[in-house]
Amino acid sequence: MSENAAGRSGRPGRGRRPAAEVRAAVLAAAGDLLLRDGLRALTFDRVAKEAGVSRTTLHRWWPSPGALAAEAYFARSRPVLDFPDTGDLRADLITQLRAFVRWLKDEGAERPVAELVGAAQTDPDVARAWSENYALPRRELARERLRVAQRQGRLRADADLDIVVDQLWGACYHRLLVLGTPFDASLVPRLVDHALHGAAPR
Amino acid sequence: MSENAAGRSGRPGRGRRPAAEVRAAVLAAAGDLLLRDGLRALTFDRVAKEAGVSRTTLHRWWPSPGALAAEAYFARSRPVLDFPDTGDLRADLITQLRAFVRWLKDEGAERPVAELVGAAQTDPDVARAWSENYALPRRELARERLRVAQRQGRLRADADLDIVVDQLWGACYHRLLVLGTPFDASLVPRLVDHALHGAAPR
Amino acid sequence: MSENAAGRSGRPGRGRRPAAEVRAAVLAAAGDLLLRDGLRALTFDRVAKEAGVSRTTLHRWWPSPGALAAEAYFARSRPVLDFPDTGDLRADLITQLRAFVRWLKDEGAERPVAELVGAAQTDPDVARAWSENYALPRRELARERLRVAQRQGRLRADADLDIVVDQLWGACYHRLLVLGTPFDASLVPRLVDHALHGAAPR
Amino acid sequence: MSENAAGRSGRPGRGRRPAAEVRAAVLAAAGDLLLRDGLRALTFDRVAKEAGVSRTTLHRWWPSPGALAAEAYFARSRPVLDFPDTGDLRADLITQLRAFVRWLKDEGAERPVAELVGAAQTDPDVARAWSENYALPRRELARERLRVAQRQGRLRADADLDIVVDQLWGACYHRLLVLGTPFDASLVPRLVDHALHGAAPR
DNA sequence: ATGTAAGCGAGACGGTACGTCGTGTCTTGCT
DNA sequence: AGCAAGACACGACGTACCGTCTCGCTTACAT
Known about the structure:
Chains A, B, C, D: This is TetR/AcrR family transcriptional regulator C-terminal ligand-binding domain-containing protein. The structure is a homotetramer of 202-residue chains. Chain A has 202 residues and is an all-alpha fold.
């Protein structure tokens, strides 16, 4: 996926190259690095070398290695964002959460996601990129689906939809980030049931 | 703090100093730095300078600046661990979660906690320190309280207590780490009610 | 010294400075240190500080503090190399050796030279710098002068010119390095006479 | 030759040990290190570890690692010091110089001697140890032999015996220290002849 | 089509931090 | 009393990044 500088159509390294080409090479190299060696290894130095690109260029386009990492990750893993609405809220939630959990587990997204959220705690650029490109859109999507259900009477009128979202996705993140043991896909239905019906006896 | 730190004042900085004295100075300086300037500023270099301690010593006792930060933080925020058991599960959960949320908000723990959990995603030493000294004990405490409630029939027999914990604390962490907007203490009762009774109509 | 050092005065220390300017500052500071405080004091740390230069830069250009010391010394004491040929071998040798001895004594070269040769025994970089820039060229010059004399019949045909060189300059170095008592200029004629006519009765 | 701390007669490492035993272990370990890995490797740290001795002890008895190295070397290579007097000055000089050259070459003394003389240029303790234990006694011995020869008329009355010594031994040291190419034993007779009869035509 | 300027590669420099090693000093505990 | 063990301050080394800057070149765009 990432192409070595040498193989770059035989051109001498100097002179101006189309911005698109440069950006593509950078994102490819950065994505490779992130998946292969983790966020710590994703330094401007290394990306520049692997992408056959000048470090100057990286500084021009990205404010920090973390920001580059975030963008590289989004460019790679356009995740499935559309939220199904089959009318069956429980089924839809299970579908969506299971897709989320499986995306983490099966596509190797666990480490990059954890590392990026981790970096966001310290690097405002990463935080912004993460929020704008990922967290907020997903949250809004879920909220919208829940709002529809609430209007249809499938959720209590006084239910706090934000809290529901926090409980569902927060439970997954909690294990990933705080406990270090990712959420298992097989538990998703129980998670949804707990969110819908609670843990107390009826 | 140390039993023979007394006669030491006039001496030059060379030679051996009691370990306890040094450790205390380091943890104090590290804690200050963490709270004042954040985790990024907590480097061995700076801690050494502020604590009047040799950098060598830091390397001897802590594997990474992050690990030192974690320990410094624990040394400072020991408390808040005992889980009440008044017999009223809902009230106890609210008490405990509210204490957690307030600890984050009112004692300035928000940033350090977020940064430490963030660093744990990348630095295994921080991860270990965090798990052993914080996450796991707290989790166990909560689980134990829920187990009692379950035995008393106040929670469904088939409730998954781990999931309940993930939903309650995970919701708080979710806002803090993923959304960047800390959980508000006034929402705690609703959070607990959602966990106990769910969002679906009865 | 550099062609565009002019407009640079007001700028902050960051960014690139002309290599020549930096090198000059480094060599000046290193030479000062070497002469003033000796080779032990010539550390990268101190040179960097005194030259207003980054330590990184020193590592980039010199493999070891010793190597830097050697170069700094050569940059300062270029001269004294041309070997006279007046036709009078004895006089020429005396001239040259006396210049050597006086250079050591009068220009404060004794200590640096001794220290550099000393360091060369342990630091291959110093050894190489010393050989290439100093010892070998000088030796070759002397040998050449002796070769001419030998061709003119002023030295025995079977004389070993290398040995003659070793005896003349070696005697000086012997006192300096092994005995610690520099050779006195007034003894130079006797030294040359001994080399030419030996110590045995005719 | 050097004995590991573990094998040291089964004693626990603590408590007082006879000084002689400690000194012997130290000198053995230091000598090994010097010959095996060179002077740079002979640090107090390493000697202490290899000799099963406390670093404190080394500081008590030796002012610097160099001084220890020097003493360790002398303890090991009690060199043949007695100067023969067969009546034949030329033969005696050849014998003695050849022994010197061969000692350097055949017994691996080249590197340690060069390194010690090198260190002496910078470390006054090494310089003193070297002078007192080696250079001066040897010089005196040679001078004495030459003085006898001079009294017997085998050297000119006006010959400067110090210069003769400087020329003979200085030639060897010159190659070793300044040129880096040790003197060859087969050249010794020519060296002596040059010293006795000079390089000029009779 | 041609000149100009925008943008790139290369790479040096200042700076901060890390991790390591060595020295000299000091304390403690054992023998 | 003397030694081993070992902690501490200090200073230096070597490395890795980051952010900044200069230079030379090439292509893209505007004229």
